[in-house]
Amino acid sequence: MTDEHRRSVELTRIGDARFKATNARGGETFMGTGGEDPDFTPVELLLAAIAGCSALDVEAITRKRADSTGFDVSVEGTKVRDDDGNHLTGLRVSFDVTFPDGPGGDAAREFLPRAIAMSRDRLCTVSRTVQLGADVDYPDAPAVPDAPGA
């Protein structure tokens, strides 16, 4: 793969249980533990990434027919701790999209379910990665014999 396909983020500690993530273009976002600060937790950022990825896909597809007049996406899941360790279950992405009256809006409304399915099944890199269960390598961590998946 070429460098144009590589994605990366750098993370820097900026305080007690607070970090700043910086992308290659200089964009920044912040995360923490969800205590007193307004920062997103890492789990909330994952949920936002799933929603944002699919929203961008669906919007790009449907706006070819008509611009939406309202576009909201919600995503939720349940954090559990079980024999597999901490993880999310029951991830659910819901769209609430409205289009104007007229032929373009009608066409966009009709195509909306297919656009959502295209994002879910093929286009959204974030949710597809979660669905496919990509390995995450931690080269600095030794193997732990009793850890899930060991």
UniProtKB/TrEMBL annotation:
<dbReference type="InterPro" id="IPR036102">
    <property type="entry name" value="OsmC/Ohrsf"/>
</dbReference>
<dbReference type="InterPro" id="IPR003718">
    <property type="entry name" value="OsmC/Ohr_fam"/>
</dbReference>
<dbReference type="InterPro" id="IPR015946">
    <property type="entry name" value="KH_dom-like_a/b"/>
</dbReference>
<protein>
    <submittedName>
        <fullName>Oxidoreductase</fullName>
    </submittedName>
</protein>
<dbReference type="Pfam" id="PF02566">
    <property type="entry name" value="OsmC"/>
</dbReference>
